[in-house]
Amino acid sequence: MGMTLLEQRAAEFAALSSDCDGGFWRIGAAMASLLAEVTDAELDGKSKDDIAQAVATAREACTRSPFFAYAQQWPRGYAGDFAIVEHIVAQRNDAQPGTFGWELKQHLMTGPMVQQHINKIVHQARLIQEALVGRGDEPVSILLIACGGAADLRRIQPQLMGRDVKVVLNDADAGALELAAQELAYLGDQLTVVHGNVMRSIDELSQHGPYDLVIAGGLYDYLPQRIASRLAGKVLTRLCKPGGLFYFSNVGEANPYRVMLEHLMNWPLIERTEADIDEIVAPHAEQVKEMHIGRDGTGLTLLVEIRKTL
Q1: For the chain, which end, N or C, has fewer CB atoms within 10 Å of the first or last residue's CB respectively?
Q2: Which positions ≥6 away from 244 have C-beta within 8 Å?
Q3: Which conformational region is residue 150 in: left (phi greater than 0), alpha (psi within -120 to 50 degrees), or beta?
Q4: Domain with CATH 3.40.50.150 in the chain
């Protein structure tokens, strides 16, 4: 039996060498052709297992990039872990320059999917700055849920130093909290860490609140709709101060990079529309003064800001 067109595109991608002139673009073109065929296979109703079998050679080729290899295995036990976020923020490429793995990683690192993540961190840092400015000389209380290494806080260290600010960090990964606490050690006893799943940690987190600003970062990319709504309710009723701000982001529907994340890595994300966000927040409408749903600069990700009633 001959190769299907999808298998052929996978084999062509895997056979590439970036030692030739134009390796960066040849790899990019081959990946685009491969992922277009993956999309067609999905539209034709092919199962995920059938597609995985057809693209196995391409997926194996991607392991030449340490980044792709890591995202296929997730050694810390969950997708989107803090270690890969640190890698993205640092804009590192750990492959050997000039190799297939290096060029492959460059396509990802110079593209919109990585840029949207950096945009989110910049946006979160701005929200923290605005919370500090908005309170003047008054104390400010900030909670970061699923904080990872707290890259947003680390961007604005000068603004935090010398301020009457209380920062509480929460994450289910003790390694993430260890890194964040190390990087933010200058805050001293103004910094508190709470290790654990956020839904099981609400009581403890509430004891350190209430908060002027609660940031959940990209956690909603991984939360089913029911849990996402429950968390919003807990934040608005038990964690936010009256007039406080709750922020989270969520990758938007029809993300064109989904096929790459799912089939060449192992990185599924829960995509949502603005209507999905409305559905998450609707049961808690009495707690909401106003809500704004924007997009990051790439247009890929929803940025959700919810102001609690006074």
Answers
A1: N
A2: 210, 211, 212, 213, 214, 307, 308
A3: left
A4: 114-256+269-308
- State which amino acid sits at residue 197: N
Structure pTM? 0.94
Identify the CATH assignment for 114-256+269-308 out of 3.40.50.150, 3.40.50.2300, 3.30.420.40, 3.40.50.1370: 3.40.50.150
Where do we find the tokens 């680390």? 154
- Residue positions counted in the chain: 310
